[in-house]
Amino acid sequence: MWKAALAGAVALATIGSFSFAPGIGVSPAAAQEVVVTEGQIARLHAALHLSSAQERHWHPVAATLRSLGRQQQQYRVASNDGGFVAQAKSRVAGYAVTTMTMQRLRSVAQPLIAALTEQQKDAGRNVLSAMGVSF
Questions:
Q1: Chain centroid to CA 40
Q2: Residue 1 included in any domain
Q3: What is the number of structural domains in the chain?
Q4: What are the contacts of 97-100 at 24+ separation with CB within 8 A?
Q5: Within a domain: residue 69?
Q6: Are 38 and 66 in contact (CB under 8 A)?
Q7: Rounded to a whole number, what is the distance in angstroms from the first to the last CA of the chain?
């Protein structure tokens, strides 16, 4: 039980300090509220109005977001099974996987972020805010 609590604290601390661009990250309170759906991904893509040169950087970002969404769904289902301890372990594991995927997202998003204009970044921030990503 203590190992699970410690892992949860580490995962939440990591999520809280994580940032995939300067000033952008997931706060500990919002960590469980970050929702990635196909609709959210499509909304982000549409809001960015990418040029053809920027579009090539989008595909790895979208793939990583889809992976995050699948993982979230898996851990949401698992956290509804079993007793309190099983649910807590599942949530901690889900936070850890989310943290790792967000770190991967940070690395694949860097080329896209660097290619965006300030207007595109603002539009993207608005969509990400709706997904639970804080700034």
A1: 12
A2: no
A3: 1
A4: 97/71, 98/15, 98/26, 98/31, 98/34, 98/68, 98/71, 98/72, 99/11, 99/14, 99/15, 99/18
A5: yes
A6: yes
A7: 33
Residue 4's nearest CA partner among 125, 12, 66 is 12
Domain that holds residue 72: 34-130
Select from 57, 103, 95 the least CA-distant residue to 76.
95
Q: What is the pLDDT of residues 1-36, one digit of tens each?
A: 334 433 343 344 333 333 344 444 444 444 445 668
Q: Which amino acid is at 129?
A: S
Torsion, Cα 64 100 89 84, to 10 degrees, reads -60
- Structure pTM? 0.64
User: 49-84 burial by CB neighbour count: b if 16+ within 10 A, else e?
Assistant: ebeeebeebbebbbebbeebbebbeebeebbeeeee
Q: Which residue has the higher pLDDT, 2 or 85?
A: 85
CB-based contacts of 88, cutoff 8 Å, min separation 6: 4, 5, 8
Q: Flag whether 96 is in a domain.
A: yes
Rg (CA), the chain: 16
User: Residue 70 falls within a domain, yes or no?
Assistant: yes
Tokens for 32, please give them: 């469980």
